[in-house]
Amino acid sequence: MDEFDAIVVGGGPAGSTCAWQAERLGLRVALLDAKQFPRDKVCAGWVTPQILAELELDAHEYAAGGRVIQPIRGFEVSLAGGKPARVTYPEVVSYGILRCELDAYLLGRSGAKLFLGEPLRTLARDGGAWVVNGALRAPVLVGAGGHFCPVSRQLAPDARATEPVIAAQEVEFALDAEQARRCPVSPEVPELFFERDLRGYAWLVRKGPVLNVGIGRQDTHDLSGHAQRFLALCESLGKLPPRTPPKRHGHAYVLYGQTPRPLAGDGFVLVGDSAGLAWPQSGEGIRPAVESGLLAARALAAQDLESYARAMEARFGRRDRPLGPGLSDHLPARIRPWLVEKLLGNALFARRVVVDGWFLHRGQAALPSR
Ligand SMILES: Cc1cc2nc3c(=O)[nH]c(=O)nc-3n(C[C@H](O)[C@H](O)[C@H](O)COP(=O)(O)OP(=O)(O)OC[C@H]3O[C@@H](n4cnc5c(N)ncnc54)[C@H](O)[C@@H]3O)c2cc1C
Predict the structure, then answer these.
(1) Element spanning 229, H or E
(2) Atom of ligand 1 nearest to the CA of 14
(3) For 152, 172, 202, 339, which has the most beta carbons within 10 A of its beta carbon?
(4) Which DSSP string corresponds to 295-361?
(5) What tens digit of pLDDT does each residue of 176-220 get?
(6) What is the pLDDT of residue 259?
(7) In Å, how far from its chain's centre is CA 55?
(8) Could you tell me if 263 and 308 are in contact, meaning their C-beta atoms sit under 8 angstroms apart?
């Protein structure tokens, strides 16, 4: 039996960040993931610059390895089909990355002992310690297995019954030279298309040679229909190149404050999507995954798991009173479509509320990485 201070289940940004930070704080960490890396993850792949600081990741160094890290200097915001408001900045406000590259990079440098291609098969308690797959033993378990995390499922089996889920679908593909030349989507200005009922939005994100087109909705009914209609709109606007691959990939996640999944319990913590932490207004999940990983590692090192839950609420707000409702919750249903079209077409609203506030959290500094 291999003995560790902590076992992390899942090697996405939440798990690899937690393992990296815990190792730096002197803990011995085992990390297992069901997949071999590099592996892909359904995701538009835009990340805020605060994440780079939190991960001590230098954009030039990262790119020097041949990886894609697309500087983003703005967003185009519209009500789908309506006139867009273009919000740009002189500086880089975000980056576009490929998840197969970023996740493998973070995992590789984590310092943890890796067990890849190895799903969690068995989880047992033995004298106050966890035993994973009959081979790894540690006093603390970190659930970082994403939305369907087996740790979260086993240790909080009832939590999912009531939680509303965001369902999303996307297509990501490399543009050939001709497609890249003709593609009207600027790599520096991704495009966001809000749905008329404000229950979701769609996007076009171009990252180096890759185009990602997708949609996420709070209402899971007929997601495929919404995706189909959005792709048709993109085609009619000339945004999608001919020969765009037809196959869409789907995934789900949960917004912060909308799930009873616990953050910490007896001998375990949940981080990232395993705990349901995505930002309510934008659905951004990588930054909460990274930040929860950092905060969980500190709690592990302090041997005070409950301090992780307190630190998360201090950072993101109380879970029973999260950061605030979305735009649609403020507006009377009768005039909503009319008002939304006016607001999203307004340059000041698009800049201050949608991009600065919901998407970039410009007012919120990075967490110190140590
Ligand atoms: C379509 C879509 C677009 C998105 N776009 C963005 C975006 O642009 N920006 C953003 O910030 N967020 C985005 N998100 C959200 C973001 O992808 C997630 O919040 C983020 O990946 C969460 O990271 P994580 O480490 O918690 O989980 P994951 O990245 O899901 O990693 C979980 C890991 O656990 C492993 N695992 C699962 N089950 C087991 C098991 N049984 N045993 C062992 N290992 C297991 C998996 O193989 C995986 O490697 C998007 C989500 C979707 C669905």
Answers:
(1) helix 223-236
(2) 25
(3) 152
(4) HHHHHHHTT-THHHHHHHHHHH--TTS-S---HHHHS-GGGHHHHHHHHHT-HHHIIIIIIIIIIT-
(5) 999 999 999 999 999 999 988 888 999 999 998 999 999 999 988
(6) 93
(7) 15
(8) yes
- Six-digit token string for 20: 């990296």
Closest CA to 211 of 247, 179, 249: 179
Instruction: Identify the CA nearest to 146 among candidates 276, 18, 308.
Output: 276
Length of the chain: 370
Measured CA to CA, the distance from residue 294 to residue 277 in angstroms comes to 14
CB of 96 shorter than 6 A to ligand 1: no
214 within ligand 1 shell (Cβ under 6 A): yes
Measured CA to CA, the distance from residue 143 to residue 39 in angstroms comes to 19
Contact 238, 298 (CB under 8 A): no
Q: Is the minimum distance from the CB of 72 to ligand 1 under 6 angstroms?
A: no
Total-model pTM: 0.95
pLDDT at 333 over 80: no
238-267, pLDDT tens digit by residue?
A: 999 888 888 999 999 999 999 999 999 999
What the block records as the tokens of 18 is 């937690």
The CA distance from 289 to 13, in Å, is: 6
Say which residues have a Cβ less than 8 Å from residue 230's Cβ, sequence separation at least 6: 80, 193, 202, 213, 215
Can you tell me which atom of ligand 1 is nearest the CA of 205? 8
Q: Please give the single-letter amino acid code of residue 7.
A: I
Round to whole Å and give the CA distance between 258 and 261.
9
Cα–Cα distance for residue pair 146/12, rounded to 1 Å = 8
76, amino acid identity? E
